[in-house]
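Internal ticket - ligand job 330, UFG:
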Amino acid sequence: MTKKTILIAGGAGYIGSHMNLAAHERGYSTVVYDNLVYGHKNAVQWGDFVLGDIADAGQLHLAFRHFQPDAVMHFAACTYVGESVTDPEKYYLNNVATTLNILRVMREVGCRNFIFSSTCATYGVPRQFLIDEEYPQTPVNPYGKSKLMVENVLADYATAFDLRHVNLRYFNAAGADTQARIGEDHNPETHLIPLVLDATAGRRPHVSIFGTDYDTPDGTCIRDYIHVDDLAEAHLLALEYLFDGGESESFNLGNGQGYSVKEVIDCARKVSGQEIAVVESQRRAGDPPVLVGNAEKAARVLGWRPAMPRLEDIVGTAWTWHKKRFCEKI
Ligand code: UFG
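stdout (structure tokens):
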């Protein structure tokens, strides 16, 4: 049987590159299509690579004609919540308009399976602890709105055209490849765990805690951290679901377990055996106090069970990679 081919838009980025590795190890042919604005060429060590922009429909068309993918996984997006507030046009152009390009080219060449990187940011500021997929989607920033717009486009396309999709709503992606071949490397970095590890490794003087007066047990924000390899596994299961004829669907991807900012910092102290300097600062605008996902639907329908739910393992893999990438001597 010939291997199925997946086109991974944004496959040089953090989650996309772990996806590319997981798909390769599962026996798929992969084509990473990435403009390398945020991604890293050295994260693409498996499969084919096309240096291309999804804004360029002509080049996309050529890549689809050449590689004839059976499915598309779409990770290419701008993901800075704060920036989306000050420059919404960038988010609607890069996250919505360019996705329409991909979908048009898919229709032109007859590629019918689409897996979309959505986000818990589409739920806005939830009023309950565990959010399931039926919870109303009322995003509070242009980033979340841009992702919800694409979900709505996909629903209409599924009705009008023969194009099936799975929306995967990630909670907080974290951790790194267990063999430390690839990991998280954003520029600028805004995510908690890599910033904590920077402070652990002495690359930053301290880590700031954004708000200690939230209505949570220790006053700091609670998030549902999910290992990036567990996210990749969910994509593979979603892909098999579509290949088996499954209907278009949406799934939350989280561990269903929340950890506070202080708990994450304590965990990094434990994992690394190092002291970490902390500065308590003001709240960051737009942060919901608690975001924890109910992913029972992904377990029930896709058979997804996270393999690395423990925070120690998530932070541990991130720390191993962080040391290799940034500070061999530690
Ligand atoms: N935090 C700090 N100090 C820091 C960085 C973060 O205290 O230096 C806090 C944040 O305030 C937040 C928590 O750590 O409470 C996690 O912050 P991250 O920036 O790591 O992650 P977010 O929860 O803000 O963002 C994630 C995804 C986004 C997505 C968002 C949905 O990374 O892509 O969830 O709310 F949009």
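Auto-summary: The chain has a mean pLDDT of 96. The chain is about 40% helix and 20% strand.
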